[in-house]
Design goal:
- It is a single chain.
- The chain folds into two domains: 2-84, Golgi alpha-mannosidase II (Immunoglobulin-like), CATH 2.60.40; 97-285, 3-Layer(aba) Sandwich (Rossmann fold).
- 26% of the residues lie in helices and 33% in strands.
- The chain has six helices and 17 strands.
- The longest helix has 16 residues, at 241-256.
- The two termini are 21 Å apart.
């Protein structure tokens, strides 16, 4: 498993009874996690006094209960700063496990010692965008949500990257890629973090099981002849790591050569010393 174990401002303190207890800076949150099917003793004192607790509803969705949690706060990862706030659907605006991928492609970008163009699709609040820009790349950041792109730009400003070469685009990722192919544009690295289900700005429907493979075939056409890497993330339980390897092998490797590998990604749990699985990633590089 690829583990995001370099955090200082974030940790999974403990897990039990369908929930994970996390520290985000100086605040602790208690959130549901479908992977946590064990009922281990709750020894950490923070179990009894979190700053925020997301209660899952039996009817779907849920709601937050707050205990001294501000509406917004920030945490850092290296030189990057991320603004956080609790969403109505349990998220905070950041997936800390992705830091293991940020470190991986940042090293590739730095070692290239040449101008590097990166495309970040389904780019959310910009964690990968900022990591790539901080490593020296120029980045095209694409997400269908105007609110998320605005949030990502604010994260860039907070990280001292307001003037970095980043294109911020509110667009449907599929339509954008189709236009880029027609324009003849290419990229040296591509990052994809597709949702399980989503809608584009004009109501376009995305279902990952139906859409991901034909879209991957399209996106592979945007790799430059000297491309460095391709990263594909999945939080969909039906897509195992081996499936990501197969998809990358039959699209990117077939076109570019190189090697595709995949793994679960995870976060260390302080109390148990074990790793909490948090989805899967597929990586291609030369």
């Amino acid at each position: 498993m690829w583990t995001a174990d370099h955090w200082k401002d974030y940790e999974v303190i403990d897990t039990s009874c369908g929930e994970k207890l996390e520290r985000w800076g100086k605040y602790t949150l208690l959130r549901p996690d479908p992977q946590v099917i064990w009922n281990t003793p709750k020894k950490a004192k923070e179990w009894h006094r979190p700053n925020g607790h997301y209660h899952r509803s039996s009817k779907g969705g849920g709601e937050w209960e707050f205990f001294g949690l501000p509406k917004e706060w920030s945490i850092r990862y290296g030189s990057l700063t991320f603004r956080l706030k609790p969403f109505s659907f349990k998220h905070t605006g950041l997936f800390p496990e992705q830091a293991v991928n940020w470190d991986w492609f940042s090293e590739i970008i730095k070692k290239a010692r040449r101008p590097v163009k990166i495309l970040n699709l389904f780019a959310y609040t910009g964690g990968a965008t900022l990591a790539a820009a901080s490593a020296g790349a120029s980045v095209t950041h694409v997400d269908a949500s105007k609110g998320m792109v605005t949030w990502a730009r604010e994260n860039a400003e907070a990280s001292g990257l307001a003037e970095a070469p980043i294109r911020w685009l509110v667009d449907d990722c599929v339509k954008f890629v189709e236009r880029e192919i027609r324009r003849g544009n290419t990229y040296d690295g591509i990052i994809m973090d597709p949702p399980s289900y989503g809608r584009g700005p004009k109501g376009e429907i995305w279902k990952i099981e139906e859409s991901i493979y034909p879209f991957l075939e399209l996106v592979a056409q945007l790799l430059s002849k000297d491309a460095l890497f391709f990263l594909l993330n999945s939080y969909t339980t039906g897509l195992q790591p081996a499936v990501l390897t197969y998809m990358l092998s039959t699209t990117v490797v077939k076109k570019m050569g190189g090697t595709a590998v995949s793994s679960e990604i995870g976060l260390p749990v302080t109390e148990s010393g074990l790793i909490l699985p948090c989805g899967a990633s597929g990586r291609w590089c030369r």
